[in-house]
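JOB MANIFEST
job_type = single_chain_structure
chain_count = 1
residues = 122
[input]
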Amino acid sequence: MEETLKLILDKLDNLDQKVSSLDQKISAIDQKVSSLDQKVNSMDQELKIHGKMINHLIETVAATNVKISETNERLDRLENKVDTVIDDVKEIKTNMATKNDLEYYDQMISEHSREIYKLKNN
């Protein structure tokens, strides 16, 4: 009987050692889980920050797109105005007197003035 008790005690000691070993392993796992929880919380905070940054970038891009559209409209209006000015300049060029025309008129006026002077003085 004593031997049986000794065997039981040995088995109980053995079980205690295994339970102790399991407790240590569970404690290590708990620490790892706690560390993972902290990392997950940290990542959540970073994701929130990145989400805010992305939302800000989206708003900035949207505002930039609006400004680009407005700038394109202004450029279209400017192009129309430039086209009108070009047409006006072409028309002015076709209708204006040239240097040769002015020289001819100057020559003719001078000749007519001399002829009138001669006619008056004769």
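[summary]
The helical segments are 2-95, 99-121.
DSSP finds two helices and no strands in the chain.
exit_status = 0
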